[in-house]
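Interim report to the steering committee. The following record documents the input for Glycosyl hydrolase family 32 N-terminal domain-containing protein (315 residues).
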Amino acid sequence: MLELPDSWVWDFWFAQDGDQYHLFFLYASRALHDPGRRHGRASVGHAVSDDLRNWKRLPDALVRGDAPAFDDAATWTGSVVRGPEGKWHLFYTGASERDGVLIQSIGLATSDDLITWHKYDGNPVAAADPRWYEKYDGTTWFDEAWRDPWVFADPDGDGWHMLVTGRVNYGPVDDRGVVAHARSRDLLQWEVQPPLSEPGSGFGQLEVLQVEVVEGRVVLLFNCLRSELSAGRKQTSGGGGVWSLVADSVTGPFDISKATPLTDDSLYVGRLVRDRDGAWVLLAFHNEGPEGFIGSISDPMPVLLGDDGLILKQG
């Protein structure tokens, strides 16, 4: 487990280099006292492990930029891929505050060694396109959602895909969450595409998306707390947390109405990764407990694939 005595830890993502796991995570000082303030004070930390349990902390990967940068308010969740020439690419969420509202877009930093990162001069590389996606207008959602990029290579070798937490610009306000999408040939220039799912499935937003092939089947993982479920789904669902569903292709389309809960709100931002034995496991951050927000990252938890999605293995 990764637990920092002086800081809250929450969203995270992995890169694997040989037998070593690199963990990138959001953290903020507990000296803020109120964990609700942590989002505006987040830095991207870095740690390494050989077993997904014992972590050695390394120098931080990223901090927010100087105004008027697209990430001058915060640097949030992302993903890491290795380009065809061996350079590592870290895609991350940049937030900028406008009149008290956080406007989000996607940035890029690169590294030769996973340790020292340099922000790309052409940032941001993607932002919400109003042809399909909601832009903040002061009357709908509480921010402009365009975050948590999950980047992966096209299975047919046709460039790269990015799945993004976004909201469409139509429909009931509490039910606009979709799998937003962008494509690139070179990991630098990105074109925003229509969403890979439809709204109306009961989610205000689909946070921290991930798609993997587990036991030969495509699995989409996302996260949504009870507070961000639609009014209708709140009546039929026991709560929120980590969700999953089975799909036909890693590039969608995804039927979000088929999603089933993998955890409750006590665990959040589930991430799938293979352990040293090649088995799929889930890590998540400890979210809510009896005394409020916890803010630490769990040990790996074995998962099984059921007919409708992932299941935590018991025992």
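The chain has one domain: 7-312. The committee is asked to note this result when reviewing the revised timeline.
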